[in-house]
């Protein structure tokens, strides 16, 4: 979704929760802190989703949030002008008198101004499932390191689970221009995926995030079975929670660039260099016509 919006010249995608400062994509993945939107409507409404991780599908509905009356003209942006007076915890010292006003007036106003999106009050019509898996090795992340590890251990005959949050295996191999074994990184990822898919002892889990590591080699995984569809198919859960029992685990989650601190570095149009390359190489999207690099 973020790449589609950028390709159509949309840089502004959200507002900060307190000062309502303008926000745009800063990254290209699940680490995104700024481009937060509301997805779907009614009982299936899902607030606070990252535009950088949403797969496009027919009839997708995405809305901006935490703004009034519109994203481009947000009246609450006036808070930014008084930021020196709205420091952290100011309300505990400012709204002390009269005491009776706290619960009836002050707190309701503060709570309405806080947060980003709002959850639906309707019952969720979708179903959710759970399951259990056992393996010799759980590999978390299917980038270059994860694919190499899965290839070596899979060929050796170990029972391997390769889990990755993306729907496209390869990680940064799909976002950079470097080569591996005289072939493009994306081509290497595709050929490696084909070999791994042919091994009966290797289970590849796309759209799956490892959410917890527990005692005795137990790991929690969330598989987004139908989040990329408008409505799940009959009998299909939207998500599935897996409990994986593994003898060993290998963390291949990659890395995120360290941002540089400077004034107004949170404004739309400012993003990590790796994100700029990802939008160009994977989604064929130029993030702008004039680009300045701060190094």
Please tell me about this protein's structure.
The chain has 295 residues and is of the alpha/beta class. The chain contains six helices and 13 strands. It has helices at residues 2-7, 90-94, 101-113, 144-155, 185-198, 273-281, and strands at residues 14-15, 22-23, 36-39, 46-50, 62-63, 128-140, 160-163, 179-180, 183-184, 202-205, 208-214, 218-223, 239-251. Strands 10-7-6-13-12-11 form a six-stranded mixed sheet. A three-stranded antiparallel sheet has the order 4-3-5, with no helix packed on it. The protein has a two-stranded antiparallel sheet with strand order 1-2. The longest helix has 14 residues, at 185-198. The mean pLDDT is 91.
Structural class: alpha/beta
Could you name the CATH class of the largest domain? Alpha Beta
**pLDDT under 50 segments (min length 5)?**
none
How much is the radius of gyration in Å? Answer: 22 Å
Helix run count: 6
Kindly identify the CATH topology of the largest domain: FAD/NAD(P)-binding domain
Q: Quote the beta fraction.
A: 15-25%
The CATH homologous superfamily of the largest domain: FAD/NAD(P)-binding domain
Order of helices and strands: HEEEEEHHEHEEEHEEEEH
Fraction of residues in helices?
A: 10-25%
Distance between the termini: 28 Å
Q: What is the makeup of the main sheet?
A: 6 strands, mixed
By CATH, the architecture of the largest domain is named: 3-Layer(bba) Sandwich
- When the domains are counted, the total is 2
């Amino acid at each position: 979704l973020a790449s589609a919006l950028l390709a159509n010249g949309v840089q502004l995608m959200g507002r900060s929760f307190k000062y309502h400062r303008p926000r745009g994509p800063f990254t290209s993945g699940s680490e995104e802190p700024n481009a937060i939107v509301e997805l779907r409507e009614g009982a299936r409404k899902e607030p606070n989703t990252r535009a950088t991780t949403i797969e496009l599908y027919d009839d997708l509905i995405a809305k901006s949030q935490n703004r009034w009356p519109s994203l481009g003209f947000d009246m609450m942006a006036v808070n930014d002008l008084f930021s020196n007076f709205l420091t952290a915890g100011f309300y505990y010292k400012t709204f002390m008198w009269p005491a009776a006003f706290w619960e009836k007036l002050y707190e309701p106003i503060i709570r309405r101004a806080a947060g980003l999106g709002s959850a639906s009050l309707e019952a969720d019509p979708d179903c959710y499932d759970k399951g259990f898996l056992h393996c010799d090795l759980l590999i978390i992340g299917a980038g270059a390191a994860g694919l190499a590890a899965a290839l070596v251990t899979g060929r050796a005959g170990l029972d391997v689970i390769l889990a990755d949050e993306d729907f496209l295996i390869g990680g940064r191999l799909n976002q950079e221009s470097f080569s591996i074994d005289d072939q493009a990184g994306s081509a290497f990822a595709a050929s490696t995926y084909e070999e791994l898919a042919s091994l009966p002892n290797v289970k590849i889990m796309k759209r799956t995030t490892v959410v917890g590591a527990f005692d005795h080699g137990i790991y929690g995984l969330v598989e987004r079975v139908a989040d990329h569809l408008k409505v799940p198919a009959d009998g299909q859960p939207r998500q599935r929670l897996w409990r994986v029992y593994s003898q060993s685990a290998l963390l291949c989650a990659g890395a995120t660039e360290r941002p540089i601190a400077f004034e107004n570095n949170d404004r739309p149009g400012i993003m990590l260099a790796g994100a700029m390359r990802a939008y160009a190489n994977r989604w064929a999207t130029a993030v702008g016509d004039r680009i300045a690099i701060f190094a």
